[in-house]
Design a protein that fits this description.
- The chain has 96 residues and is mainly alpha-helical.
- The N and C termini lie far apart (105 Å).
- Helices cover 80% and strands 0% of the residues.
- The protein contains four helices and no strands.
- The chain has one domain.
């Protein structure tokens, strides 16, 4: 008990501070390693939600069983046709 009651010397305080700093550095390195590993796992393994979205997009742009034009492609072509018609209409209305 007498050993615990006496104050620390300057050398002991310095050693204690150094040990605490080393411990904090080890904990920070371990946290950094853990975060890097988690980030690597996230990059490597796409989530179920991402996989489902990719599958929906693939089906949306893929031709049907009868090789008909996919819905996504039809939507794009219709949008382009509307834009072309609008541009022609504006051109004709301003030049005549």
């Amino acid at each position: 008990m007498a050993n615990e009651e006496r104050p620390l010397s300057n050398a002991e305080r310095a050693e204690l501070e150094e040990l605490r700093a080393q411990k904090a550095a080890r904990e920070e390195r371990a946290e950094l390693d853990r975060l890097r590993a988690e980030q690597a796992r996230q990059r490597q393994a796409p989530s179920a939600q991402e996989l489902a979205a990719k599958e929906r997009a693939r089906r949306f742009m893929e031709p049907g069983e009868d090789l008909s034009m996919p819905l996504g492609q039809r939507i794009v072509l219709i949008a382009l046709a509307v834009i072309v018609i609008a541009v022609i209409a504006v051109y004709l209305s301003t030049h005549h």
